[in-house]
């Protein structure tokens, strides 16, 4: 069931469904999230089941802001400064849990949790509930992330109790996952907020992820974001029948033989490319093509997150 976020009863329906232990797909500024109560082992079990997600991959808990976060986790001064600057927004912080509160089945039993305050309709729902929501991206584990309500409906269908349609996501790639350590900040997953921006706002140096952090953030290891078609990156030519995923109206040899040409941003704007990325991967699949050739994308700003998603989408699959 899809309900527009502008419907008069949208907020009440979403809150009631969640309070009753149900799952609601909610629009956020990054991608659509599959939300359930972070404090309920039953809701969390339903999320893992609906996504077919391995339990070893922990979930982000979404809060309304710093005040709610402090009820569930302990915030160090640098994390608090980042949250003050960026929340609500595309920043996820890894923080130690307080006893009780967030159910440990959402963190793979760990005492560190991922916490973010999303913008948009999700923010209103969390504020009204006055409780944190566990919400991974609302797609089957390993598949393309959803940036529209239609993507969610096509992928999860009846596995979700309610889908709120807030239109296309304004950023289009997931939040940046950050861990503050004694000697600097580590980026565990590149995202909509650039690493340079994180370092600048934090006022401490960027450092590599600590030993064990990749195991802590297993969602960043495997093949992920995968379309049905295979993918070839940094393509300088197109072969007959391939879909070309272009950027900045580049001249690519063999373009005329492409099954379809989709340009992430003809004017070469990386934010526009991020917004279009997952929608265009969905569209490329709809052509039925067996291969997507992807033009080079600049590795700067949000381009780092775009290339991260493309590399995982192109990674060998089991
Ligand atoms: O923008 C986003 O972050 C979206 C929207 C819906 O908020 N959510 C999202 O969730 O992308 P998900 O579950 O698809 O990705 C969460 C990422 C994964 O890479 C996971 O491994 C990592 O965060 N993560 C979650 N909990 C963690 C923890 N306790 N420690 C380290 N990494 C964690
Ligand atoms: Mg995801």
TrEMBL record:
GO terms for biological process: regulation of translational fidelity; tRNA processing. One of its GO terms (molecular function) is L-threonylcarbamoyladenylate synthase. Residues 8-193 form the YrdC-like domain. Pfam families: Sua5_C (PF03481), Sua5_yciO_yrdC (PF01300). Its EC number is 2.7.7.87. GO terms for cellular component: cytoplasm. It comes from the Bacteria. Keywords: ATP-binding, Cytoplasm, Nucleotide-binding, Nucleotidyltransferase, Transferase, tRNA processing. Required for the formation of a threonylcarbamoyl group on adenosine at position 37 (t(6)A37) in tRNAs that read codons beginning with adenine. PANTHER family: SUA5, THREONYLCARBAMOYL-AMP SYNTHASE. This is Threonylcarbamoyl-AMP synthase. It comes from Paracoccus homiensis.
């Amino acid at each position: 069931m899809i309900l527009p976020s502008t419907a008069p009863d949208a907020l009440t329906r979403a809150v009631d469904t969640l309070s009753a232990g149900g799952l609601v797909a909610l629009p956020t500024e990054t991608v659509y999230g599959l939300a359930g109560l972070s404090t309920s082992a039953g809701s969390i079990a339903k999320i893992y089941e609906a996504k077919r997600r391995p339990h070893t991959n922990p979930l982000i808990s979404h809060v309304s802001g710093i005040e709610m976060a402090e009820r569930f986790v302990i915030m160090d001064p640098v994390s608090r400064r980042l949250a003050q600057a960026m929340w609500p927004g595309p920043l996820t912080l890894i923080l130690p849990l307080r006893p009780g509160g967030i159910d440990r089945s959402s963190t793979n039993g760990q005492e560190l949790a991922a916490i973010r305050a999303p913008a948009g309709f999700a923010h209103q729902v969390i504020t009204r509930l006055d409780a944190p929501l566990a919400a991974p991206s609302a797609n089957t584990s390993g598949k393309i992330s959803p940036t529209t309500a239609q993507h969610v409906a096509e992928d999860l269908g009846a596995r979700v109790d309610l889908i709120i349609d807030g239109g296309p996501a304004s950023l289009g790639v997931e939040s940046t996952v950050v861990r503050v350590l004694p000697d600097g900040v580590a980026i565990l997953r590149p995202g909509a907020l650039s690493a340079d921006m994180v370092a600048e706002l934090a006022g401490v140096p960027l450092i590599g992820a600590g030993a064990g952090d990749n195991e802590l953030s297993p969602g960043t290891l495997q093949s992920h974001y995968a379309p049905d078609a295979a993918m070839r990156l940094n393509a300088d030519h197109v072969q007959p029948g391939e879909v070309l995923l272009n950027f900045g109206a580049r001249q690519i040899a063999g373009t005329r033989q492409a099954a379809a040409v989709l340009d992430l941003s003809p004017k070469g704007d990386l934010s526009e490319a991020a917004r279009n990325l997952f929608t265009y991967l969905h569209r490329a699949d709809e052509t039925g093509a067996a291969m997507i050739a992807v033009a080079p994308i600049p590795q700067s700003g949000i381009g780092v997150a775009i290339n991260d998603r493309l590399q995982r989408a192109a990674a060998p699959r089991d």
